[in-house]
Amino acid sequence: MREMPRLGQGTWRMGESRFAWKTELHALRAGIDAGMALIDTAEMYGNGRAETLVGEAILGLPRENVYLVSKVYPHNAGGARLIQSCEASLTRLGVEALDLYLLHWPGAIPLAETVAGMEGLVRAGKILRWGVSNFDTGDMQSLFAVPGGDRCAANQVLYHLGSRGIEVDLLPWLRARQIPAMAYCPLAQAGSLRRGLADSAAVAAVAQKHEITPMQALLGFVLAQPGLCAIPKAAVPAHARQNAAMATIPLDAEDLQTLNAAFPAPAKKVPLDIE
After folding, report:
1. CB-based contact 227:175 (threshold 8 Å)
2. 25 and 19 in contact (C-beta within 8 Å)?
3. Is 196 left (phi over 0), alpha (psi -120 to 50) or beta?
4. Which of 14, 28, 75, 245 is the most exposed place for a label (fewest CB within 10 A)?
5. Is 119 left (phi over 0), alpha (psi -120 to 50) or beta?
């Protein structure tokens, strides 16, 4: 079974404007051409329009050239509604199966029912793996307490230099069980999620050293963390290519020390950051 790539493309808030459609389409294709085969989307994004955009971006490509991830609403994550949601996502994407299907966040439907449904989708060949999103350590423990819960293949959570709470307990918990974490918003939405991040002297110093942009430096920090996959969004081709370039521009120990000093991880557990 294909291994999940460490660097991919996010699509949150894409596909929502017909005026931006072509530019976003070219951005996704530029990312694929530059080696970012993983594309993350969700039935929630643009009420399915992001999935339709992705489907158009990958049209004509060999299926093995892309690693597709989508997410189901919590209120759809059980029984017939889970099957219907998955089928609708597959139709919009124009494919027969997803590489990874995630529960978007914890909801009211019992986890045992969701896990059973996900396993049914695997048996039916609709998905290859399943996982979760926005699950904190306690949520993961609850998941592992139900039959088949330990088959979870990933947990997608918000993580960037300015939001490092998962390093306290969630990330070690996942690493101990060899479950990858997928970092969404690894660029902190162009630095807007943390005051002082985009114009930080530490970030600027690392960027200048490697002749990259501050946003690339933020992405490099996330990619330097073991057991993490990053899915930055790029709405224009140039940004997609900049993101892809970070696969071959690793930050060194000195860089990480500089960034750690400026934006240290919390000393104790904090609530899971969700955007």
Report:
1. yes
2. no
3. left
4. 75
5. alpha
- Buried/exposed 202-223: b ≥16 CB within 10 Å, e otherwise: bbeebbeebebbbbbbbbbbbb
Give the distance from CA 272 to its chain's centroid: 16
- Whether 205 and 199 have beta carbons less than 8 Å apart is answered as no
Interacting residues of 171 by C-beta distance below 8 A, sequence separation 6+: 181, 225, 227, 228
Give residues with Cβ within 8 angstroms of 137, minimum separation 6.
Answer: 169, 170, 173
DSSP string, 20-53: THHHHHHHHHHHHHTT--EEE--SSGGGGHHHHH
Report d(CA 217, CA 219) in Å as an integer. Answer: 5
Which residue type sits at 73? Y
User: Judging by DSSP bridges, how do beta strands 8-9 and 228-230 pair with one another?
Assistant: unpaired
* Measured distance CA(84)–CA(106) in Å, rounded: 19
177, 152 contact by CB (below 8 A): no
